[in-house]
Design brief:
- The complex is a heterodimer.
- In chain A, the strands form two sheets. Chain A has a five-stranded mixed sheet with strand order 5-6-7-8-9, covered by helices on one side. A two-stranded antiparallel ribbon of chain A has the order 3-4.
- Chain A contains five helices and nine strands; from the N terminus they run H-E-E-E-E-H-H-H-E-E-H-E-E-E.
- Chain A has one domain.
- The termini of chain A are far apart.
- Chain A is 28% helix and 18% strand.
- By secondary structure, chain B is an alpha+beta fold.
- Chain B has a five-stranded antiparallel sheet with strand order 2-1-5-4-3, sandwiched between helices. In chain B, strands 7-9-10-12-11 form a five-stranded mixed sheet, with helices on one face. In chain B, strands 6-8 form a two-stranded antiparallel ribbon.
- In chain B, a hairpin with a 7-residue loop joins strand 11 and strand 12.
- The interface between A and B is large, with 54 and 70 residues.
- Strand 2 of chain A pairs parallel with strand 4 of chain B.
- Chain A: Keywords: Signal.
- Chain A: This is GerMN domain-containing protein.
- Chain A: It comes from Streptomyces curacoi.
Chain lengths: 211, 523
């Protein structure tokens, strides 16, 4: 009798202590989980659509990093672009945006010194110079590009690089479906989908999908 | 017990009720009422402790809960403000900055970062930039050790600003991750792959939080101390009546029936005190009535024996004369005269015994002790009664001396031996020895054993009762029927005990135990 009463009392005390413990326990400043706080920050990137193009290279963590490359200057780099003459002819007027063919050729030429300095690389194979890129005029939101490559040899990052470069070259929002074809007739279709989700409709999954 | 005999701390207080004397030899158990006072007043789980604990617990729970909740809310609000300020100002700062793509590491980048870091709010922070394989910071190390992989992963996985509070080596840090985007077109942005991190020490916040904690504690602890005061007052208000009640109950138990408790207030304890007083009054009343009735009865017996003694004295004188002259009368008359003479003698003995018992009942019996040689005293007793023939055997070692009342001890021995000779059969053995039992003083043990059939078991408990006849068939015996009762009273007067029993060898044995030094006995 007496023992049960003592035990009951002990249990009540234990309950009180248990109830008080969380109140007393959280003293000081505690760690937290990762908490989301608003959207990203946008910064000034000096992107001029008239003579800058966006190339997408592979960053060390496996993602894609856009790189702004200016077309204008430097005769020294001239032969990296396919025949200045034909480029000039393709881009009929200089006021317009940089032609897609040029951007794709620049991408295929690989990262430059400053890109490599930042750890950027490409998953595309080195192409022999002189290959041609043909861009068909867009039809119902789809851009078809013919490439001097074998698409079957490319991994998803390489395809993504191509898709994004073409998409952003063609459309300032990058919201366009890109179809890649090679000489063998193989084709891949996809969207870039790098834009943050808050920019509008739900984007397609990054990476091209096989037709 | 007559009025005024008071505390009654002695073996006699038990026998105060009625004419049935104590049948067992238990003079030591009468001292019950004095058992309590040794207990300490403050106990481990007494009422006072429990009340104090209850008050303290209530105060602790309320003060602790209030303090803890207040503290928590204030701390959270403070941290939230600091975090929001930091995140907002970090975003504002970096949005005013321009970067080229690809990012160029080196001095320029570090200068930009330092510029951002300087404008940190609410405290300066360290800014880290991660882009591709470039790692730069406004501080000394290009890579922070505080930023967790989880934060990095979150910043890379989805383009949202995010923060995490980290405690490293006891110092709390706020780490903010800000993935950077740039405008690819007027209405679309593109992740740049650049993530800026800000790491801010929250030392000021910690100081403030600690101050809050101190304030909460400093508020709660005096509250506990203050709670002790009503606790003590409540305990006192309960304990004092309880203590008074206990004292009064003990005082009543020791015979002071006129004890009353002062009734204060109108609470339950006052009711209890009032009930106690009423019960005590009723008890006192009935005890008084009982005592008066007993007193009347005792005085009646005493008066009767006194009244009888005077005519009996005269009758004895006459019967002695008649006895002497009986030889000259004719046979029938002589027999009648002798019968009258014998019965008158018995009557005289009975009256004497009655008076002796009355003196015991009235507590008028006194003990006149003297240092005697016990063996010698017993031999004298036997000799005076002419019991020196071979009906009596003695085992009386010489040299045992004790403080006794010689007259009363003589009565004890004579009654026991006479009883043995009357109801048992010869030979009767009287033995004497002393015995020492460690906690109590040494005792003198006198045994009187006969060779008769022994006492019937059903008679044993009543053998010392007044007018108890062990042999129901023999209604008239030679004794007065008070002999053993008087013996018991005499032994008790010496502070000793007496018991009767049947030893295995047959016969009946009466054992008297008297302390060797009877000063402690009442007298």
């Amino acid at each position: 009798m007496r023992r049960t009463r003592t035990r009951r009392r002990a249990r009540a005390v234990a309950a009180a202590v248990t109830a008080a413990a969380p109140l007393l326990g959280a003293c000081g400043i505690q760690e937290t989980d990762v908490i989301e706080a608003g959207g990203p920050a946008s910064f000034q990137a000096f992107l001029n659509r008239d003579h800058d193009m966006l190339l997408f290279f592979r960053s060390p963590d496996g993602g894609l990093s856009p790189v702004i490359r200016t077309t204008e200057p430097s005769a020294g780099f001239g032969d990296e672009y396919v025949e200045p003459g034909s480029a000039d002819q393709n881009s009929t007027d200089t006021a317009g945006p940089v032609p897609t063919e040029k951007a794709v050729l620049a991408l295929l030429a690989g990262p430059r010194e400053e890109d490599r300095a930042a750890g950027l690389s490409t998953s595309l194979p080195a192409t022999r110079p002189g290959g041609t890129v043909e861009v068909e005029p867009p039809s119902n939101g789809k851009v078809t590009t013919r490439l001097p490559l074998a698409l079957q040899d490319l991994n998803s990052t390489a395809l993504h690089q191509l898709t994004c470069t073409i998409a952003y070259s063609h459309n300032t929002d990058g919201q366009v479906v890109v179809e890649l074809t090679d000489q063998d007739g193989t084709s891949r279709t996809g969207t870039c989908g790098l834009a943050p989700r808050n920019s509008g409709e739900a984007p397609a999954e990054p990476g091209p999908s096989t037709r | 017990m007559t009025t005024g005999s008071g505390a009654g701390s002695g073996p006699g207080s038990g026998s105060a009720t009625g004419f049935s004397p104590d049948r067992g030899p238990d003079p030591a158990t009468g001292s019950g009422p004095d058992r309590g006072p040794g207990r300490s007043r403050i106990r481990a789980f007494g009422l006072r402790t429990r009340l104090l604990l209850a008050f303290l617990l209530v105060a602790a729970v309320s003060a602790g809960t209030t303090a803890a909740l207040t503290y928590r809310e204030a701390r959270n609000a403070m941290l939230q403000t600091a975090q929001d300020t930091a995140v907002t100002s970090f975003r504002d700062q970096v949005q005013q900055t321009a970067f080229g793509l690809p990012l160029q590491g080196g001095e320029d980048l570090e200068a930009v970062l330092r510029d951002i870091a300087r404008k940190g709010k609410p405290h300066p922070w360290v800014v880290f930039a991660e882009y591709g394989s470039i790692r730069a910071s406004s501080g000394e190390n290009p890579v922070s050790t505080v930023i967790t992989p989880e934060l990095r992963r979150a910043a890379r996985a989805n383009p949202h600003g995010s923060f995490e509070r980290v405690v490293k080596d006891g110092v709390p840090y706020l780490t903010i991750a800000m993935p950077m985007v740039f405008k690819a077109s007027p209405d679309s942005v593109l992740p740049s792959g650049l993530v800026l991190y800000a790491v801010m020490r929250m030392t000021d916040e910690q100081v403030n939080v600690d101050a809050l904690l101190m304030a909460a504690r400093d508020g709660a602890l005096p509250g506990l101390a203050v709670a002790l005061i009503p606790g003590l007052i409540a305990a006192r208000s309960v304990l004092r009546p309880v203590r008074e009640l206990r004292r009064a109950a003990r005082s009543m138990g020791s015979g002071r029936l006129d004890t009353r408790i002062p009734v204060r207030g109108s609470d339950e304890l006052a009711d209890l005190a009032r009930t106690f007083n009423e019960s005590a009054a009723q008890l006192e009343c009935s005890v008084r009535e009982l005592r008066e009735a007993e007193e009347r009865a005792r005085r009646f017996a005493s008066d009767v024996s006194h009244e009888l003694r005077t005519p009996l004295a005269g009758m004895l004188a006459v019967t002695e004369v008649l006895d002497e002259d009986a030889d000259h009368l004719d046979a029938d008359t002589a027999r009648a005269v002798r019968l009258v003479s014998a019965e008158t003698g018995k009557l005289a003995v009975l009256v004497e015994d009655l008076m002796e018992i009355s003196r015991f009942d009235a507590r008028a019996a006194e003990l006149n002790t003297d240092e005697v040689d016990v063996a010698e005293a017993i031999r004298k007793t036997l000799h005076n009664r002419h019991w020196s023939d071979d009906r009596i055997r003695t085992e009386l070692p010489d040299g045992i001396r004790a403080r006794l009342d010689p007259r009363r001890f003589d009565i004890v021995i004579a009654n026991l031996v006479g009883n043995a000779l009357r109801h048992g059969s010869a030979p009767v053995t009287v033995s004497l020895r002393t015995e020492t039992r460690s906690p109590s003083p040494p005792v003198l043990i006198t045994e009187v054993m006969d060779s008769g059939p022994g006492i019937r078991p059903e008679s044993l408990p009543h053998i010392f009762d007044r007018f108890y006849k062990a042999d129901a068939a023999r209604t008239r015996s030679a004794g007065s029927g008070l002999g053993l009762a008087i013996t018991l009273e005499n032994v008790k007067l010496h502070g000793g005990t007496i018991r009767a029993g049947n030893p295995p060898g047959g016969g009946a044995v009466f054992t008297v135990e008297i302390p060797l030094h009877a000063e402690g006995a009442r007298g």
